Amino acid sequence: MTAHAASQAAAGTAKATGFRRGVSSADWWIIGLLLAFFTLNFADKAAIGLAAPDLEKDLGLTAAQYGLMSSAFFWLFAAGAVVLALFFRRIGWRWSAAGLMIAWVASMAPLTVPTTVGVVIASRMVLGFFEGPAHALCQSVVADRFPSERRAFAGAVVNAGSSVGPLVATPLLTWVIVTWTWHAAFVVLVVTGAAWAVLWLVVTRREPGMGPRGSAPDPAPQSPAGLGVGDIDVPLTSLLRTGSFWGLALLSFAGYLISSLKVSWLPSFLHDGMGYSRGTVGLLATLPYGLAIVVLLTAGLISGRMLKAGRSARAARGFLTMGYLCFAGVAMIAFTQVPPGGLQLALVVAAFSINSVAFSVAFAGAADFLPRRHRPGFFGCIIAAYSVAGIVAPWLLGVIVDAADTVSQGYADGFLVVGITICVFAVAGGLLLNPARSREALLAETARRRAASAEGNR
């Protein structure tokens, strides 16, 4: 088949299925719903941190025990990220998103009434399992529906939910907890999640590209070199051996160190470590989330403009993300070295506002060399890798706080270690992420495999 004939065939297939490569208003509606999806995803994460003082009091927990209970969310996170992401390839994005939300609602329901430590841990484990593939699902939909130069911004809009969720939930759920109990906060989340699932199923009922895997062609988004990823035909294991996979994993790990500590420990740090009242904490804890939205959308726009200006994907995806994360790490190190006050608070806000760049800007670079059929598995494996940060960081910080002479010194020691780790992982990940080099290596492997296959058929 000639190149022209192949192009015509692809166009005909796209027309028959109704799948569009151009960006339409329907694409942005889907992005809006995914933004709400991600908002709820992070609102339920924030709820446990906001309820921490009441949980510790009601259940008689130490800081280390609370940290361990908080980390239970991530114990099955990696398994869910890989297993469910691969399964969702077969049922399509519409039912995948709806199924995840229904599972979230069911897992949070036991926390709406008085409960025990065991039930809380089990609930968080189940919730973590079903939230594992959420990011992979959202990024796969973005990669399907947006071209390379607009993908980072679209992904940033969706990932803004990681800040919008806690930004909205923090004052609202704090008020609910103070007015009633921490159980009432989960009632609000359960009702809101059920409403989203119904709305999603109604809106996406006839939307092209949201059905089963076979309902849409394998799109071929343009790489910086002007070639589609449809040229690449390698097994998933080959993709996992690329430097870009490990670069994404390290950048995401650094970002998730910030994310996991922000939702599990930031309110307690502001209250116990910096001395702010519960009411003030409800307002101050929203500042990093508000700034994070601006940072995330700005980073997405900068990345897209860098590509349009002719900069490499390595610079627009890897180096840009590395720079943002290193800034966050340095700010975290700095706030452990200054006394309480306005400067320390400003550094805290800065450090905790740059966690999501890795999950939108850096992830957008993967689509430059990643075939559609491998996206769920590839993203699932990265999520499994960075989820380790969510398992270790909350528990380890609790251990350090308990071991220190004072609570304030414990927080300072813990965040100093985390800040250094963020910088190390960010630099290593930024240097390894190179979409163009990974594409060249995968194309070369594809050619070798095809040549070997042709030789074997002779």
Automatic annotation (TrEMBL):
Residues 30-437 form the Major facilitator superfamily (MFS) profile domain. The keyword tRNA processing does not apply. Pfam families: MFS_1. Keywords: Membrane, Transmembrane, Transmembrane helix. It is a multi-pass membrane protein. It comes from the Bacteria. The keyword Transmembrane applies. The chain crosses the membrane at residues 26-43, 63-88, 100-122, 180-203, 245-266, 286-307, 319-338, 344-366, 378-400, 412-433. It is found in: Cell membrane. PANTHER family: BLR1003 PROTEIN, SOLUTE CARRIER FAMILY 17. This is MFS transporter. It comes from Streptomyces endophyticus.
